[in-house]
Amino acid sequence: MLSLGLASAAYSSSSDLAQPTVPTERLSSSPDIWLTKGFLSPAEVKHLRTKVPADEAAYAPCIGQVDEFESKRCAFVPVAGDPLAEALVARLGEAWRVDTSRLVAAGLPLIRYLPGAPPVGKHGDEDRHGVVPNATLVLYLTGSDPAHPAGQTIFPEAGVAVSPTPGAVLSFSNLDASGAPHPNGRHLVSAVPREASRAADAERAHPVSQLSLSLSHLSALSGCRCRESTP
User: Fold this and answer.
1) Domains and CATH numbers, the chain
2) Mean pLDDT computed over every residue of the chain
């Protein structure tokens, strides 16, 4: 995932960042994992999809994942000057109690998984400086065919698997009560089968597209990357 590298100015429990102030569903308490369905309206999802770059030249390897460029690519969805996108970013800031001003200037970091993308191995999230953010948000712009689950975010130790649903936001804590990386927070992303992509092509231009943001106390929302690590 892609990060702007904003680190927390001071550590405190990350659970208050992962949990939004809007109605949500708690999927796990170790770590705190929340799924907020319908945070983005269908109109907002549709609008953001139109802003997803169509030019492949706009995409670059996700930070630290050059070898995966053939199947996983990163870009930014522009926000500044777009009233609907700016309003959405403001709502994110209100719901997760963080400053989102940098997202307006930099854009929303996009992850795009192409047809045939292999699984992303189990990893913990870090910013580009190797700092573990308090929490991560994943905003889903696309879904997957129930008959061919694709791009699921899976937390093996927590027993949680989340399938992409357009408009939903997955948020989770990366740190435990001591401020160390949570042992159950490591997660993976399931493969994107080619047959799943073909089944969905009529409904969306990009097989699995999501916006991924990291949250740190006393800082702005930023992009987030993931780095695979050993157990």
Assistant:
1) 15-220 (2.60.120.620)
2) 78
